[in-house]
Backbone:
């Protein structure tokens, strides 16, 4: 009796491990988006606090769109983590059935979400830019 696994078991193990690596990549991306959203949301608050300390009598302005943009980025990061967990689970089920295939729908949805967020940020930057 040998200790070597059958090729099918080895291939499944490789697929499970690849699925786990992919899941972890999605989670890292999710954390990066959440972190960036936090920084964007807090940036104008920080600028207002800095201005208040440098010039105490200065009237503070509204935080602008950085708060909603930052919060939407944090929400997107959270949704991305949930989608990652769902995709990980679905791929594991497919591996068990021996029918692993691509999920183009999820790729299209995530790409569309990122594109919409990017376009909104570009429009905001163009509308609020001060010409020198």
Residues:
């Amino acid at each position: 009796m040998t200790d070597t696994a059958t090729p099918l078991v080895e291939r499944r193990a490789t697929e499970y491990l690849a699925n786990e690596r992919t899941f972890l990549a999605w989670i890292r991306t999710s954390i990066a988006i959440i972190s960036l959203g936090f920084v964007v949301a807090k940036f104008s608050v920080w600028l207002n606090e800095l201005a208040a300390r440098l010039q105490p009598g200065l009237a503070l302005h509204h935080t602008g769109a950085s708060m909603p943009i930052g919060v939407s980025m944090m929400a997107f990061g959270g949704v991305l983590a949930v989608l990652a967990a769902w995709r990980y689970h679905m791929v594991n089920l497919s591996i068990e059935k021996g029918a692993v295939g691509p999920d183009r729908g999820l790729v299209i949805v995530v790409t569309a979400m990122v594109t919409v967020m990017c376009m909104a940020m570009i429009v905001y930057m163009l509308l609020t830019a001060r010409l020198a």
In short: Helices lie at 7-54, 66-97, 104-128. The chain has one domain: 7-128. The two ends are 80 Å apart (CA to CA).
